Structures are given as structure tokens and as C-alpha cells.
Amino acid sequence: MFHRNDFHRCQHQMAHEKNTKSTDNKTPSDASIIDASKVIKKKESFVNFVSSRLLHFLDRYQKLLEKKFPGAMTVYRVFVIGFKDFSIDTKDYLVIKNRIVMSPTKVVELSKKDIDLYYRMPGEILRVGPTLLISALPFANYIVFPIAYYFPKKLLSSHFWSLQQKSQFAQEFHKDKLLNYRPLLRHLQFSLEEIKDEGLKSLAKDVLHDLGSGSHPTVEKIMGITYLFEKERYSLKAIHGPHVKCLCSVHSMNRLYLKRSRLYDRAEMLRSIDIVIRREGISNLKTDELKNACFLRGLNASNLRNEEMLDYLETWMSVSQHVESRANSLLLHLPILISYNHPNNWALLRSK
């Protein structure tokens, strides 16, 4: 039989379960939310405190290392920054190279920054490549990097050079080129008698006389002998072997193999960069870009004012914009035609 006491007991149990369920389904109160946010803020402030203390400790530790081991920290900084810059430029170069190979994009359609990177990076990679490859061998980096640090001109790319080293090496590279200016002028003079056209021979003598007397021929005089560099005695196909080697040295090129074809490519590079510079405006070049452009085109740009560098580039462009591929030899000889007697070149050549 179901007794009354049992009935009351069931009612009491059902009421207790109902109260329990209502408690479980209750949403969090505003007070509990505020308490949780306070806990989160405390955690964030603790993390911020720990992070700031850690950064402070690292900063003090770095200063301590610089004080105790200045040489090691300098080497460390050179290679860390150098690797970062080299990696970025290499990735950009590969993108540009792929764009030219895989699409109808022409070199002259690149921006000034991209075309500089496109022509500069292969040499940079060749210079630093052996150092990086050898350093990948087990424990070799402990030997290779210190050696490379003390011979950066030969074993490292410009990404690892300081501003002082960049300026110093630019002058040293240019001085090596200047040592070949006089021999190159002699080659031009020796070939005069082999010019068959008497009119062209007379014009060439006038140009070379200007150089020999301490001045430079005008743009008009240079353009007047363009044909000599196209199909006559001064063309790339006609100049003698020693003349070719000397021309390679004037442009800091290897003299061992494929000299004429690589000289032709060098002239095409100069022409392409000239087209891009004219398109973007010579006046828009920054000081460092002006210096690099002048060094590339045969002028020692150290200690020159922007106006002087601009004047030189304007003279160069006045000739190069009228020179076609068949007269590439003229572009290659242009450095001595317009800068042979420049005071800044002679000052560098006579310096110790």
C-alpha cells in the first residue's frame, strides 16, 4: 500500500531536485563576470611585468656582452644584419628574375630599384656564395666567419659592409679601373692609322687630341665618330685582343672567357639602366643612387656635390640615348671619353 508518509517523502524529493536544476541552469551574475575580468587583467599585468623585466634583462645582458666582448658582438651584429639584408634581396631578385623569364616583362620595364637589384645581385651572390657554402659544413662557421670578417671585400657581399667600408671599397674598385684608362686611350690612338675613311680618321684624331690635351670632347664630337664604334676599327668585333682585355678591366670584368659577348651584355645593361633612369627622372635620384650611377659610368663620385654628379650623368645620357645596340662599343668607351681628365678621377689615381 502507498502510505501518506511515502507521498510526502516523494514530494519533498521532487522539490529538492527542481531547486537543484534551477541552480545549475542559472546564468552567471554580473558580479561573477567582473571577478573573472579582474583575474584576466591581473594575469595580463603579470605577463606584461615579466615581459618588461625580461626585455630589460636582455638589454642589460647585451650591453654587458658588448663591454666584455666588444669584438665578438661586433662580428655577431655584422653577420646577423648582413644575413637578413642578403636574404631579403636574394628573395626579391628571384622574384624579379622569375617575372622576366616567365612573363613578357622586359628589363627596361622594371623600376629603378628592381633593375639595380636584377643586375647587382648575381655578382653579390658569387662573391659571398663560397663563404656561405663552406660555413654550412660542421664547425666550419667558427673558422670561416672570422676570416670573412677580416677580408670582407673579397669574401662578403655589400650587405655585410659598413657605410665606411662601402665608401672605401667603392674607391678601391674604381681606382683599379682608372689604372686601365691610359692603356685604353693608347689602344684607341694606336688604331687610328687603321681607319680607312679619312674624314672619320680626322674626327677621331680631334677627339683623342682633346683627351690628350687635358680636356674632354663635346657630345657633338663624340656623336660624330659613332660609326667607328659600329662597323669600323673601334667596334667590338674589330678591336684587338689586348684592347678587349683592357676594356674588360675598365668595367671590372673577368678577362678569362667570352670577353666580347660579356662586354656586349655589359653595354646592354648600361643602356637598360639609362632608359629606366630617364623614364623616372635623373633629378629624382637620391645622393647614394647618384654616387653609384657615377661610379658605374666611370667617375669617382667621392666628395662631389649632387649638382656635379647630375651634370656628369646628363652628359652621359646625352650620348647614350642616341646609341643603338650596334654601337655598344661606344657606350663601353664612354667613361674615358667624358671622364678621363676629370679632376676627381686624377685625385683618386694619385692617392696612396
Characteristic key phrases:
352 residues; mainly alpha; 74% helix; elongated
Secondary structure topology:
Blueprint: H1 4-24, H2 30-68, H3 70-102, H4 112-135, H5 141-150, H6 152-155, H7 163-178, H8 181-190, H9 198-212, H10 219-224, H11 226-230, H12 241-250, H13 259-280, H14 287-296, H15 306-320, H16 328-339, H17 343-350
Helix pairs in contact: 2-3, 3-4, 4-13, 8-12, 13-16, 14-15
Describe this structure in words.
The protein is mostly helical. 74% of the residues lie in helices and 0% in strands. The chain is built from 17 helices and no strands. It has helices spanning 4-24, 30-68, 70-102, 112-135, 141-150, 152-155, 163-178, 181-190, 198-212, 219-224, 226-230, 241-250, 259-280, 287-296, 306-320, 328-339, 343-350. Helix 2 crosses helix 3, helix 3 packs across helix 4 (112-135) and helix 13 packs across helix 16 (328-339). It is elongated. It starts with a helix and ends with a helix. Mean pLDDT is 85; it is low at 20-28.
